[in-house]
């Protein structure tokens, strides 16, 4: 759908302001659909990833991991498809350094060095790529995710935390370079949250894509005090080392517990059934079972529950239907604000 043919939706003469907070592969799908439905989108993207190409680049040149930011840039860009294909191209060379790296990750890392920080680098790239919306790294500095497990042990690093396969009690973030300093989000991030009509969490890994953002002190406080409705898009599948055996209600409980109260207003839960042959578990090896529905538990955690078949099955994977989810989000933007 071209920009001119998008659904026109306005609030008092303007596009609805939707702030989406998270990371991972599910986020770009929702962002693209919101953009197509004429939302004024701001994506606040996690910077605590330490795996894959992003993690290797981070270790080599000590920049914020660029992978999630790269995918979000593409999802909101009006650049030509050929340019986006180049930006997303991943080297298959056997070269010890370039193998597996996405060109976009290298460009983001280079611009970060040129600009002196990741925030300005992403704003420059947004202009170059004709991005419709705003893309803000959750922090200008690389962050390390830390977790305490129910058994009292502590682990650091997204990858190491997931590898433990233990039940997580709570998580927090520290500045990777200066652990004694309190991580903060830059002022445009806080302003976007304060001015939003709705704030959306997810979809994405609960402990490693969503909560790291909320654990940035001033960002979490902005979410708690915002007049906007807080919407959580619940995951379709449970995830190894994070949400094993979690119901949808337990996902919401964990968010509320980390925020320190009952803050989630609305939750979107999938009612479609994932069949035994719908998901290639070898390819998507982080997933376990479909998240079970607990309506009574959800009622205790939030005010509004929207249940529908939000499934999109393709590429041997299980994903959210971005258009359906975006429609529900925008409906909430028009119907409700937090009092």
UniProtKB/TrEMBL annotation:
It is found in: Cytoplasm. The keyword Cytoplasm applies. GO terms for molecular function: LPPG:FO 2-phospho-L-lactate transferase activity. Keywords: Cytoplasm. SUPFAM superfamilies: CofD-like (SSF142338). The keyword Cytoplasm applies. GO terms for cellular component: cytoplasm. GO terms for biological process: regulation of cell shape. NCBIfam families: CofD_related. Required for morphogenesis under gluconeogenic growth conditions. HAMAP family: Gluconeogen_factor. Belongs to the gluconeogenesis factor family. This is Putative gluconeogenesis factor.
